[in-house]
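Fold in tokens:
===
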Amino acid sequence: MNIEVIKNKNQYHKSLIRFEEIFLTKANTKEGKEAQLLALVIKDYEDKHYKIKSPDPVEAIKYRMEQMNLSRKDLGEILGYSSRVSEVLNRKRKLTLEMVRKLHEKLNIPLESLVQAY
């Protein structure tokens, strides 16, 4: 077991192949420990080279509404502005600080997604 920090795509692909081979081994075995270390170096490489951007605020709201099976009326009740829901979802009105707080609090949408420019 000679695991090093992944520095290029070739090492990354080899690490993925090896990880797939030993993924289901028991944790306290030699291969299990190797899998744990590989997972860490693979994650480190992916975090640096394959960043996933947060969705813009409107997309985050729509996605969360879909997950929670909420209607526009439900969102209006959460925001306290039923007349503003359509404008926000159609990008005609920006979110206010108060709306951001309520969406974060009631729908658990991450603040970093809600405060992005869009």
The chain has a mean pLDDT of 94. Residues 26 and 32 are 5 Å apart (CA to CA). Residues 9-49 form one domain. The chain has two domains: 9-49, 57-114.
